[in-house]
């Protein structure tokens, strides 16, 4: 059977501040690789070093098919198991290229090759046994290992054979050349059964009882078949092994093997190659998801992080950046990088680690979407704000926050309108705390002066403007009440001085002007 790599769900973490609202992460909880061990995203083996070129043709020779099948079985060609398999293949080649086979018709030859493999090598079906070397050692096989064995043997017999792939199955097709125009005959070969040559033919009907002793492929497994190149077909072994490694979270083995698949087929343009690419990318994105710390699930508030979690996540994200630099950026990888960078920044937010957040933002910003880049910049700015104000009272926070709004940073983190608004929100909160103190102490004149300063720093803040107006009204009311108290006591000199002093502070206030004018007139004072 063929198995496709499946992605693990990757979602964003959530911060609890009003400024940052994202979706919650589900972190992986299964077995992880050894501490500090990162998978290589270089191919498990070098095509050019083994075959002398990176540009193998779409149609491979029998020897190339066989050797690639061994390599994707993770069986180095200089190993003892490979030596056994290669020796057996030499025997196969010698027999199928001999006179007895060559004098047969192409159709009979294709059938005879399948019978030969079952006579000498293929003994027992095992749906999980994709490795070609193991098929020779134990006789156990599945559709992929048997199909690759057949393809190599049939090519050695001088036949034109091509691989067929469905989402659940793999088999071969032999092309029988006719003499007339458009006379090529296509015969399918179900390699999981010795009677699988040309299914539905007279032979298969006559041997129906015998066929039942072998694995019978469900008809549904033949749906959505596509013919693939020899190179794509040889990589199916590696694809099955990668899918198996995913179930064990063994990306140390899976990713180099996936890279070897990609390196062989990346120059081709086909839907099958697109699928190889997709399965390769799933390995990388699953690895990143697996290494997202479990602490990301906690409500993200500053200071509640698990120390070191952000740094560990940064190692994974840096690895992911290297993967993208090596293999290129796609929509799928960009989407995963969006999530990875966001979750890393949430960890930095939890730990109040601006230095790491800024460093990782600069490394990753070229590989995230425009929307995520802006969101990340906002979060980095918020981490900086929390970092520089952490532990300070609001009176000491105000000059630091005001500086952020008036000075440009070298990295451009604080240059966007959204980030400026975020800094303004923090400054407004600090000013609110500051001004509330004056209200509690009923220090309206001093409060008005502070509110006037706040209004200069935050001219667009309705809260500050309202506070300034309130302080002004309270200050004027205080002057008026003090004047009225002195006037009611008959202390004209004090009453007039209170109003004149008030007008020095608030020279355009109509209430104080009217009070002074009316009072002087009532006392006959010019």
Give keywords.
mainly alpha; 23 helices; four-stranded antiparallel sheet; single chain; two-stranded parallel sheet; 526 residues
What does the model show?
With 526 residues, the protein is mostly helical. Helix content is 59%, strand content 5%. The chain has a 4-stranded antiparallel beta sheet. Strands 1-2 form a two-stranded parallel sheet. Helix 6 links the parallel strand 1 and strand 2. Helix 18 packs antiparallel against helix 19 and helix 20 runs antiparallel to helix 21. It is rod-shaped.
Task: Give the topology, please.
Blueprint: H1 47-51, H2 62-72, H3 80-96, H4 99-102, H5 106-120, E1 124-125, H6 132-138, E2 140-141, H7 143-156, E3 160-165, E4 170-176, E5 185-189, H8 202-206, H9 208-211, E6 226-228, H10 230-234, H11 236-247, H12 251-265, H13 271-290, H14 309-327, H15 331-351, H16 354-364, H17 370-389, H18 394-406, H19 417-440, H20 444-457, H21 462-488, H22 492-505, H23 510-522
Helix pairs in contact: 2-7, 3-6, 5-7, 11-12, 12-13, 13-14, 13-15, 14-15, 14-16, 15-16, 15-17, 16-17, 17-19, 18-19, 19-20, 19-21, 20-21, 21-22, 22-23
Give a brief description.
The chain is mainly alpha-helical.
Number of helices: 23
Global Rg: 38 Å
Poorly predicted runs: 15-31
Task: Based on Cα principal axes, name the global outline.
Answer: rod-shaped
Got a strand count? 6
Helix fraction, binned, reads: 55-70%
């Amino acid at each position: 059977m063929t198995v496709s790599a499946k992605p693990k769900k990757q979602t964003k973490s959530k911060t609890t501040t009003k400024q940052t609202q994202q979706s919650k992460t589900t972190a992986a909880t299964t077995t992880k690789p050894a501490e500090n061990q990162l998978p290589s995203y270089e191919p498990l083996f070098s095509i050019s070093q083994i075959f002398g070129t990176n540009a193998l043709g779409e149609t491979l020779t029998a020897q190339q098919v066989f050797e690639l099948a061994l390599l994707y079985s993770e069986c180095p060609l200089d190993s003892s198991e490979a030596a056994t398999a290669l020796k057996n293949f030499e025997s196969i080649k010698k027999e199928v290229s001999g006179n007895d086979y060559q004098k047969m018709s192409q159709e009979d030859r294709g059938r005879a090759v399948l019978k030969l493999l079952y006579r000498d090598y293929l003994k027992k079906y095992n749906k999980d046994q994709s490795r070609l070397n193991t098929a020779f050692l134990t006789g156990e096989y599945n559709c992929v290992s048997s199909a690759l064995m057949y393809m190599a043997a049939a090519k050695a017999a001088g036949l034109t054979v091509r691989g067929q792939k469905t989402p659940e199955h793999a088999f071969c097709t032999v092309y029988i050349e006719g003499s007339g125009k458009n006379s090529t005959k296509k015969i399918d070969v179900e390699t999981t059964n010795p009677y699988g040559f040309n299914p539905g033919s007279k032979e298969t009907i006559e041997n129906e009882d015998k066929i039942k002793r072998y694995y019978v492929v469900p008809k549904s497994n033949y749906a959505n078949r596509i013919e693939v190149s020899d190179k794509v077909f040889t990589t199916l072994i590696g694809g099955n092994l990668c899918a198996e490694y995913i179930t064990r979270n063994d990306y140390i083995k899976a990713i180099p093997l996936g890279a070897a698949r990609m390196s062989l087929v990346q120059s081709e343009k086909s839907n099958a190659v697109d699928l190889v690419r997709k399965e390769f990318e799933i390995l990388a994105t699953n690895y990143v998801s697996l290494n997202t710390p479990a602490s990301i699930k906690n409500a993200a508030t500053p200071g509640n992080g698990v120390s070191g979690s952000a740094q560990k996540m940064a190692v994974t994200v840096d690895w992911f950046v290297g993967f993208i630099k090596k293999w290129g950026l796609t929509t799928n990888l960009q989407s995963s990088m969006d999530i990875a960078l966001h979750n890393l920044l949430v960890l930095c937010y939890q730990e109040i680690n601006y230095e790491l957040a800024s460093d990782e933002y600069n490394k990753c910003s070229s590989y995230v979407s425009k929307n995520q880049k802006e969101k990340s910049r906002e979060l980095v700015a918020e981490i900086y704000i929390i970092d520089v104000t952490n532990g300070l009272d609001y009176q000491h926070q105000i000059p630091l926050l005001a500086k952020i709004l008036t000075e440009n940073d070298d990295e451009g983190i604080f240059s966007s309108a959204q980030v400026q608004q975020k800094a303004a929100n923090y400054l407004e909160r600090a000013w609110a705390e500051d001004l509330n103190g004056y209200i509690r102490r009923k220090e309206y004149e001093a409060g008005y002066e502070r509110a006037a300063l706040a209004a200069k720093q935050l001219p667009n803040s309705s809260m500050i403007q309202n506070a300034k107006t309130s302080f002004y009204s309270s200050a004027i009311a205080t002057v008026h009440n003090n004047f009225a108290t002195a006037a009611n006591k008959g202390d004209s000199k004090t009453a007039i001085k209170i109003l004149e002093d008030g007008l020095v502070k608030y020279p355009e206030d109509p209430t104080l002007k009217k009070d002074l004018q009316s009072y002087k007139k009532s006392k006959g004072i010019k």
